[in-house]
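Q: Could you fold this chain for me?
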Amino acid sequence: MKNLGEMLKRLRKQQRWTQEQLAEQLNVSRSQISKWENGSLLPDIQSLEKLCRLFHVSADFLIGSEVQRQEVLREVKRLYGTTEINEKTLAAIDYLLQNQDMSEAMYTLTKLPEKKRKHVETMLVTIIKECAEAIG
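A: Sure. Below is the predicted structure, expressed as structure tokens.
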């Protein structure tokens, strides 16, 4: 389970914001952001609410509480308006929530232009299938 500081740093870096940029958006000092991220200080409740709104996450997610599969499913359905979420998709979401490097890599992938993204997706699918066959 990640703590609030680790989660905050991860979310900030996903947005490619400096501590200073985040501090400006929250109307707090950069040193306060630093203390939140290194765990020496916790944000007050108003700052926690602002962080949740800014990053579009729940307080449970931000503080690192274990998210139950049904909660994830309900939130994905709410956000994307689909009922076509199956166990495979849910397992992939769980995996990304628990693996920061893969989550950040997937986020980077989403920011690529469509043509380049499709090319990388094709390569990744091929690599994953071939590796799974080789070790399975």
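A (continued): The mean pLDDT is 86.
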